[in-house]
Amino acid sequence: MQNVIEAVEHKYQSKGLESKIPEFQVFFNDHITNDFNTLFTTLPLEKQYFVAGVPGSFHGRLFPEASLYVVHSSYALHWPSKVPTEVLNKDSPAWNKGKIFYTSGSDEVANAFAAQFAEDMENFLNVRAREIMAGRMIILIVPSIANGIRRS
Question: Closest Cα partner for 27 from 55, 47, 4?
């Protein structure tokens, strides 16, 4: 977050608007079982922003409509909202023998996870679109595998 804040401050300073640099509030999000206290103890003492923890799944709404200026997600969106049903169904061609990953699974297993990812991404982007102010920014860092790369 410090990098983002410094970039915004630099932009204001370069335009001669030092007196108009906004205050920053950073919301950290994780599942309700996360120990936010551990996170809070790792933050710098001299941080230039206010902090809050927001428990809940990022696959659903977390914030009021049009209330966010910047949304940033790093290395989290690859986690599905649920294991695809067909992967758990013994009668399905995508049954994965009780495993909840697809790296060594069949094409049917990979396709089931790909469909779940597509559904989750569409949902994530739709709920964030409601929460972010018009004309603002979403920054996403998502691990991926290029097409054509073998899974196993």
Answer: 55
